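> forwarded from #structure-qc
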């Protein structure tokens, strides 16, 4: 099974915004730093997935 994912690399003023993953044994890479994003839902584009994930994870919608 092939899964498609989309990731956002957020950079401003020489700084990167990253996500510290929850320290739960039930998720992949618990307690590690990572990028924002996730899998694409059926019929969703990569851009739509990134926008959805950013809204879900940090309550922010990019303007572009």
């Amino acid at each position: 099974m092939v899964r498609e994912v989309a990731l956002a690399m957020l950079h401003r003023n020489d700084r990167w915004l990253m996500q510290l993953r929850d320290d739960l044994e039930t998720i992949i890479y618990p307690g590690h730093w990572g990028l924002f994003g996730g899998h694409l839902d059926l019929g969703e584009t990569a851009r739509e997935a990134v926008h959805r994930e950013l809204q879900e994870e940090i309550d922010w919608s990019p303007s572009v």
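QC bot note: The longest strand covers residues 5-8. The helical segments are 46-58.
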